[in-house]
Write a structure and sequence with these properties.
- By secondary structure, this protein is an alpha/beta fold.
- The protein has a single domain (7-191), classed as Rossmann fold.
- It is 33% helix and 22% strand.
- The chain is built from 5 helices and 7 strands; from the N terminus they run ββαββαβαβαβα.
- It has a 7-stranded mixed beta sheet, with helices on both faces.
- Strand 5 (107-115), helix 3 (122-133) and strand 6 form a beta-alpha-beta unit.
- The two termini are 18 Å apart.
- The protein binds guanosine-5'-triphosphate and magnesium ion (MG).
């Protein structure tokens, strides 16, 4: 498997003014808090320490930029639906995340992570509808597939597809077992060529 090599942490962004404004393409990870966005980045780089992973939801509280091969950025975003933050903190983070997703012309691809064990939350639906409405280039990742049997994985893909009225393929994934990691790395390669 060809993992992403030469990955450097560039910076954590807490304010609009600090967003990176060069022309390199961006791949962004979105999804509910605790779904495994940071772990997903660590799988891609085969390094548990690239992005900080949390035991409790709300670990990532800013936008973290990682530069790959000096060619493109992976951006680890804070999750939606976190409960442990103050209203003010939530509001600031939501504003910054939305601003970034809505205004950055360099976002080449978005990995939208959903927990394979649960039907989409209200926020998962809103994210999906937003991605479709704005004609974003995205892939739905059904993470934590290691928690389900193969039969349940298949059933969940069907249920999730129905629930979202989705036309796109959904990829069951696990940061624990690396299920379909090769497939995701191929998608990144294709998008960045
Ligand atoms: N079993 C299992 N656990 C996972 C998987 N991916 C992530 N986790 C666990 O889920 C928890 C949250 O992971 P994070 O990567 O911090 O999640 P996040 O989406 O970045 O969360 P926020 O930063 O709060 O938005 C951690 O305890 C991870 O070890 C997976 O594929 N399988
Ligand atoms: Mg995180």
């Amino acid at each position: 498997m060809e993992y992403l090599k030469n990955v450097e942490f560039v910076k954590s962004v807490f304010n609009k003014g600090d967003l990176i404004r060069d022309d390199l393409p961006i791949i962004a990870m979105v999804g509910k808090s605790n779904v495994g966005k940071s772990s997903f980045i660590n799988s891609l780089t085969n390094n548990k320490n690239t992005a900080k992973v949390g035991q409790t939801p709300g670990k990532t509280k800013c936008l973290n930029f990682f530069l790959v091969d000096k060619k493109f950025y992976l951006v680890d975003l804070p999750g939606y639906g976190y409960s442990t933050m103050s209203e003010k903190e939530k509001e600031n983070i939501n504003k910054l995340t939305n601003y970034f997703l809505e205004n950055n012309k360099n976002i080449r691809h978005i990995f939208s992570l959903i927990d394979i064990r649960h039907l989409p939350s209200k926020d998962d639906r809103a994210m999906y509808d937003w991605l479709v409405a704005l004609e974003k280039d995205f892939t739905i990742i059904l993470n934590k597939a290691d928690k389900l049997s193969n039969a349940k994985i298949e059933a969940s893909i069907k249920d999730m597809t129905k629930a979202l009225f989705a036309k796109e393929e959904m990829i069951p994934f696990s940061t624990e077992t690396k299920l379909n990691l090769d497939k995701v790395l191929d998608i990144i390669k294709e998008k960045m060529n």
